[in-house]
Amino acid sequence: MFKKILIANRGEIACRIIKTAHKMGIRTVAVYSEADRDSLFVEMADEGVCIGPAASKESYLVIDKIIAACKKTGAEAVHPGYGFLSENAEFSRRLEEEGIVFIGPKHYSVGQMGDKIASKKLAKEAKVNTIPGYADAIDTAEQAVEIAKAIGYPVMIKASAGGGGKGLRVAFNDQECFEGFTSCRNEARTAFGDDRILIEKYVLEPRHIEIQVLGDAHGNVVYLHERECSIQRRHQKVIEEAPSPFLDPATRKAMGEQAVALAKAVNYQSAGTVEFVVGADRSFYFLEMNTRLQVEHPVTEMITGLDLVEQMIRVAAGEKLSFSQEDIPLKGWAMECRINAEDPFRGFLPSTGRLVKFQPPAGVDGQVRVDTGVYEGGEISMFYDSMIAKLITHGANRDQAIERMRDALNAFVIRGISSNIPFQAALMQHPRFVSGNFNTGFIAEEYPKGFDASMVPHDDPALFIAAAAALHRRFEDRDAQISGQMPGHERVVGDKYTVMRGDERSLVTVVPAPGGYDVKLGGETFAVRTDWKFGDTLMNGTLNGKPFTIQVARTGLRYRLSHNGTQAVLLVMSARWAELQALMPTKVPPDLSRFLLSPMPGLLREIAVREGQEVKAGEKLAVIEAMKMENVLKAEQDGKVKKIVATAGASLAVDEVIVEFE
């Protein structure tokens, strides 16, 4: 077994690999960019080597720097994690030539299966079901359009060397194909150093289901059941689960056997994933093979009891698999939510900055698991992927896994940046998701105009009113105790309040009771029992005996409460204050429609218009790159460009002016 391994990655996955290596008694080396100098994975590793500037093309993607770090530290093997160089055949080959073990498949397998074009040809030869498409590299956007028309829209445009949703678009017409090809090629060149693009038929109402395979150097290959990855936004996975609520045992077996056949065809030795698109009739077609560890591997670990990182290390060290196909259990159900630094209320734009508060839910062995690479006080950078944590739950069945995920999301506190937790929580409540009746178009179909918390109906609206009233009464009671009033002239705290949520006003009476308060609302009494303390971000308690966990933030007299995907801002006032509040004028926000503002911090890649140009609604104005993704900004209405304020290549802040219109 290895004595020391180097992790050629960063963030959450680097931390994940380090934990398993330490469990196995293996020392670890972290390589890091200048931007990651103070990161958690660097602290966790036994040694660290700085390999360059923040930009990945100058650090994490430079093979020579990784090899030099191995030689400097004496690392015998390299685990690439996912992304970066994990599916780079040249990297695997170079390590082998230097006598360093690549903890992953052999370079010839990476080359054959990591390349989406070559893998499709090999899949056909191995008699694996494939979907129609153009399996050669495409040179120009014009050629892409002609190919797409020949295949028939819609088509999927994707980078040959891609993964993780980077360099991938779906086009339904010529214009979308032309623009999608250009964006995919740019993203692929930036993220992977390989701008080859392929096009294939996009199956309508598809499900994305993948098979986890594991092979060793002795000819043994097994499949570790499937993962359902159909809940996606912009072709990036949002929720993953294992097993799939859609597959029956016969289809699971057929897909698993095809995945194994494909792996054996290329002498696959490590953990890998064969991805399929599955139709409504359970017909399935090969999409691609990811020759690496997947982001969503924890759900497979939950249902099988296997540590996939450990298995990869053992296989790389030459050990045989210690189990056969018949030995692999399928225990219960696992669910994973990707917690990303993005604002779901602003079109999921990237959110960067300082983690003022980072409080994951308490891990419960076998039930709740949090994989992360960040810490409270750390910084979320614009240079890398937006994922800051993975939240995984396990249950005896799917309903229990979902219920535990709901509770865990309610208890996951992030402050300082925006996160997609409200959206994840809303998905966990959605009837279609709960029923298992969904496909890869689910989010686009259910949220065509974006996500807003007001769209999420709460099953108990009185919870917010009662909780806000109880919280406010607790603040009032404390204020009365510390006000320093003279004996006999103490401040009397009243029982009656007005709670405003938007334009809705509710009259409540709040009376102290053992362990909390009784809140009278509309002729009904709500018993709020809680041990909440001042400064707590979570309010745990019961409402009429039913447990709840609410996230709490207070500004002045306003309370921002979050529960089950719903966010509510409530204003709690005395009766007199409510009378005065009704007389306050409404402040009209400034008109910013004449400006194109940067919706996120990022690099301004392109200005697509010029001064004096007439533009139409929907026309491309600019391109901003942030967190490894290109974001195209388009005109919301017809207009004329008065002034170009920003210049291409500039680093923009949120709401910085790019273009001014007449």
TrEMBL record:
Report if keyword Iron-sulfur is assigned: no
Span of domain ATP-grasp: 120-317
Pathway(s): Metabolic intermediate metabolism; propanoyl-CoA degradation; succinyl-CoA from propanoyl-CoA: step 1/3
Tell me the keywords, alphabetical order.
Answer: ATP-binding, Biotin, Ligase, Lipid degradation, Lipid metabolism, Magnesium, Manganese, Metal-binding, Nucleotide-binding
Cofactor(s) the record lists: biotin
TM ranges: none
Reactions the enzyme catalyzes:
propanoyl-CoA + hydrogencarbonate + ATP = (S)-methylmalonyl-CoA + ADP + phosphate + H(+)
Does the record carry Magnesium as a key word? yes
Q: Tell me which domain of life the UniProt entry assigns to the organism this sequence originates from.
A: Bacteria
Broad class of enzyme this protein falls into: ligase
- UniProt xrefs under SUPFAM superfamilies: Glutathione synthetase ATP-binding domain-like, PreATP-grasp domain, Rudiment single hybrid motif, Single hybrid motif
**A GO MF label:** biotin carboxylase activity
Q: Domain named Biotin carboxylation: which ranges?
A: 1-448
Cited PROSITE patterns: ATP_GRASP, BC, BIOTIN, BIOTINYL_LIPOYL, CPSASE_1, CPSASE_2
Entry EC number(s): 6.4.1.3
This one is known as: Biotin carboxylase
Upper taxonomic classification of the species?
Bacteria, Pseudomonadati, Pseudomonadota, Betaproteobacteria, Rhodocyclales
> Which gene is the coding source of this polypeptide chain?
accC
